[in-house]
Every structure is written in structure tokens, then in C-alpha cells.
Design brief:
Length: 140
């Protein structure tokens, strides 16, 4: 637990939350600033800032919670789809430094659009070089 973390304060009961799911490992609650109504956050009870810091076992528990919430949004709210997003670090858009997943119900007419500006590699060789660097770091 971190005293400076808003999610840890929610876990400690110091800040109220609209809890959807809770077990020994995770807490899922409605986002107070939803992209679409029903937008839910799933967090580990263990304070870790990014996905790089959590154990595989704990991440599995979080992902099971994400899956349960996604299914519930479809069933309970009639969502036609679900977006699941997660950011690591401020540069990636992470606002709260406690690992969390956004589970967002989606509808054809919900008015939300992702701004995705796809780029490309300069050449197949550049793509191959990036691939090799990534693969090499996995063994380190």
C-alpha cells in the first residue's frame, strides 16, 4: 500500500468506490470519469505501478477479473463490444501510478472514437532490426 496512491486509498476504504467485484487479489470499481457508462477499473490489491512490477501469478488474477468484468458488461448492459486498455508510465497516458486496466463497454452509437494514427517502418530491414532487439531483450 502507498499512502500517496488514490487507488490504495480506495482499497483502504478512505475513498468510496462503486465496487463491482472484489476478492483476495483484485478490486473492480466504476470509473468516476467514464468514457462510456459502465467503464470499470480493475486493479490488483498489491501496490505496483506498472505491469513490469507485478508477478505472473498476480497478473493472472487481475486478468481473470478483467475477463469477468468484460462478460458482465456485455450481459448486464447489453454492450456490443468491450475495449480493454492499460497504460504504463505517464508518457503512455498512465495518470494514476497503480497498475490498472480499463474495461469499457462499447455500443455502435456511444460517440467515443479512438484516435489511432498508424505509422510504418522505413523498410522491412528496420522492422527486422526492431524485432531482433526485442527478442534479444527477452532472454536477458
Amino acid at each position: 500500500m502507498s499512502n500517496d496512491c488514490i487507488f490504495c486509498n480506495i482499497l483502504a476504504g478512505g475513498i468510496p468506490a462503486a465496487t463491482i467485484l472484489e476478492n483476495d487479489d483484485i478490486l473492480a470499481f466504476l470509473d468516476i470519469g467514464p468514457i462510456v457508462k459502465g467503464h470499470t477499473l480493475v486493479i490488483p490489491k498489491q501496490h505496483v505501478e506498472t505491469i513490469h512490477e507485478i508477478s505472473t501469478e498476480q497478473l493472472n488474477a487481475v486478468m481473470i477479473g478483467v475477463q469477468q468484468v468484460a462478460a458482465a458488461l456485455v450481459k448486464a448492459l447489453g454492450a456490443e463490444g468491450v475495449n480493454i486498455t492499460q497504460a504504463n508510465g505517464a508518457v503512455a497516458g498512465q495518470v494514476v501510478p497503480h497498475l490498472h486496466f480499463h474495461v469499457i463497454p462499447r455500443y455502435a452509437d456511444d460517440g467515443h472514437h479512438w484516435n489511432w494514427n498508424a505509422k510504418s517502418y522505413d523498410s522491412p530491414e528496420e522492422m527486422g532490426s526492431v524485432k531482433e532487439r526485442i527478442i534479444a531483450s527477452m532472454g536477458a
